[in-house]
Amino acid sequence: MKALLRRRWPRRNVFIALLFACCLVLILPAVASAHAILLRSDPPKDAVLNVAPQQVRMWFSEDLNPAFSTAVVVNAQNQPVDQKDAHVAPGDTKEMDVSLKPNLPPSVYIVVYRTDSADDGHILRGSFIFTVANPDGTLPTLNPTTIPGQNVLGGGNLTGLYTGQLDVPTTFNLVMITLVELGAVFWVAAQLWLLFVLQLAPTADAKLNAINREVQQRFESRWSVPTLLVLFIANFGVLLGQAFTITGGQLGAAFAPQLLGGLIANGRFGTFWIVRTIV
C-alpha cells in the first residue's frame, strides 16, 4: 500500500504545482494599494474666487486611463458650464483638465470627476466645489432643493460621493471580484489536492487503477469543473461590474458593445481580464 502512495515523478509534480501557482497569480484581479485619488486642484476645493477661472485642473495619485477618465462642471442649478473637453493632460498622465465657459457669473460650482486608474482599472467618482463671489463680496449659496451634481456622469444621485456609502454598481463590482478571487483560490487548491493527495501512483493492479480514474473523474465533475465554471462566469461579471460603475448603474448603457469593447481593449484592466479568461 505504501508503494501506491509514493510519487513516481516528484519533480514533475513540483513543476505542476508551480504552474498552478502561476495560474493563480494570473487569474486573480490586479491588486493595487489605492484608487486614483484627487490630491489637489486649481481652483482648490472650497475655494472662494473673485473672478471665475478659465479652466479646472486636477492632479491624482495614479496615472489615469484617458478612455474613461472625465469631468463635468455644473452650477448651483445643475447646468453644465464646462466646454465638454475634459481630458488627461498630454504631459502628465496624473493630471486632468477641463475648460470652462467664459465670463461665468457668481455662483457655487460643482466639479464632478470620474477616474479610471491606468494601474489597476479601479473606477472612482468624486466631487468638490468652488465659489465665485458676488461683486459686493457676498457669497452665493446652493439651492436647498437641488442635489449638487445629480444625474452627472451617468449617476442618478451623487449622495454617495459625500457620505462614502457603497452604491449598487460598486457593490456588484465588489461581489464579482470577490467571486473571481475565491473561485481562483479554490480551483487551484482543488488541482493541488487532486495531484498530491487523491492521485495514486500507477500500479499493475487494474482494479486500483480503475478506482483511481473513477476518483479523478468524480473530483473533476463535482468540484473542479463547477468551480471553473463559476470562475468563468464571475470574470464576465467583473467586466459588467466595471461597466455598471462607469455608467452609474444604467443597465442599457452598461451592456453597450462599444463600452465593453473599450474596457477590454484599454488599460491594464482589459489586459488582466483577457489573461484571466484565457487561463
Shape: elongated
Number of helices: 8
User: What is the gyration radius calculated from CA atoms?
Assistant: 26 Å
How confident is the prediction overall: mean pLDDT? 78
For the structure shown, list the relevant keywords.
four-stranded mixed beta sheet, alpha+beta, four-stranded antiparallel beta sheet, 279 residues, Immunoglobulin-like, elongated
What's this model, at a glance?
By secondary structure, the protein is α+β, with helices and mostly antiparallel strands.
Provide structural commentary.
- This protein has 279 residues and is α+β, with helices and mostly antiparallel strands.
- The chain folds into two domains: 2-30 and 169-278, no CATH class; 38-165, Immunoglobulin-like (Sandwich), CATH 2.60.40.1220.
- It is built from eight helices and eight strands.
- The strands form two sheets. It has a four-stranded antiparallel beta sheet with strand order 1-3-6-5, with no helix packed on it. The protein has a four-stranded mixed beta sheet with strand order 2-8-7-4.
- Strand 5 (87-88) and strand 6 (95-99) form a beta hairpin.
- Helix 2 (10-27) packs antiparallel against helix 4.
- The protein is elongated and about 100 Å long.
- The two termini are 37 Å apart.
- Residues 1-12, 29-33 and 156-165 have low confidence and may be disordered.
